[in-house]
């Protein structure tokens, strides 16, 4: 089983939405997929019955090694809670979503510190909620590069279909081909690094 943990100490960066859509992509591709909602907000738990081809598993089952899946995606809380180091200890890949702004790049410091203290073998930063016709500035990319965490090529746009994806069984239940392509490219880029 490959475990992908979506990690970021700053709230509002789209961790849950990315977890949902990546899980549905892998399920659509025929993998046996599970998600773990380690965020106390519980958004994925609330919609678990609506997800097609994805099993919801508890943090306890994950930590006990009782997950029967090929791909496990873990949505984490925007704070360093007691389970986070334990979940990172079993993580194959950490995905760190960051909005492309100065304050968001500065806020990466806490997440980078947690990641550095863990044993996660591979990780990557994905720029998320990138506004249409608003290029990411070189300054922001330079700030992110200082954390010595690879910046993924895929960029995730700010689209209504992501906001609605909990109601449409992910972007693949919508007709937003650009969002579908972005999630597919992100999933393939993560898979390549696994």
Automatic annotation (TrEMBL):
<dbReference type="InterPro" id="IPR027417">
    <property type="entry name" value="P-loop_NTPase"/>
</dbReference>
<protein>
    <submittedName>
        <fullName>Plasmid segregation oscillating ATPase ParF</fullName>
    </submittedName>
</protein>
<feature type="domain" description="CobQ/CobB/MinD/ParA nucleotide binding">
    <location>
        <begin position="4"/>
        <end position="166"/>
    </location>
</feature>
<dbReference type="InterPro" id="IPR050678">
    <property type="entry name" value="DNA_Partitioning_ATPase"/>
</dbReference>
<dbReference type="Pfam" id="PF01656">
    <property type="entry name" value="CbiA"/>
</dbReference>
<dbReference type="InterPro" id="IPR002586">
    <property type="entry name" value="CobQ/CobB/MinD/ParA_Nub-bd_dom"/>
</dbReference>
């Amino acid at each position: 089983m490959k475990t992908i943990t979506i990690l970021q100490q700053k709230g509002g960066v789209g961790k849950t939405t990315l977890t949902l859509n990546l899980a549905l992509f892998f399920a659509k591709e025929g993998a046996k997929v599970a998600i773990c909602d380690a965020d106390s907000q519980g958004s994925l738990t609330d919609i678990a019955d609506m997800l097609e081809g994805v099993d919801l598993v508890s943090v306890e089952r994950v930590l006990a090694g009782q997950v029967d899946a090929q791909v496990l995606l873990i949505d984490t809380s925007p704070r360093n809670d007691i389970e986070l180091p334990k979940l990172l200890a079993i993580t194959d890949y950490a995905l760190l979503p960051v909005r492309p702004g100065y304050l968001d790049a500065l806020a990466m410091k806490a997440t980078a510190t947690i990641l550095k203290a863990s044993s996660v073998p591979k990780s990557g930063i994905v720029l998320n909620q990138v506004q249409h016709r608003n290029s990411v500035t070189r300054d922001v990319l330079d700030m992110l590069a200082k954390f010595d965490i690879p910046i993924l090529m895929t960029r995730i746009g700010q689209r209504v279909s992501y906001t609605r994806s909990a109601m449409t069984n992910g972007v693949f239940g919508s007709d937003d081909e650009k969002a579908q392509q972005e999630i597919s490219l992100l999933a393939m880029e993560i898979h390549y690094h696994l």
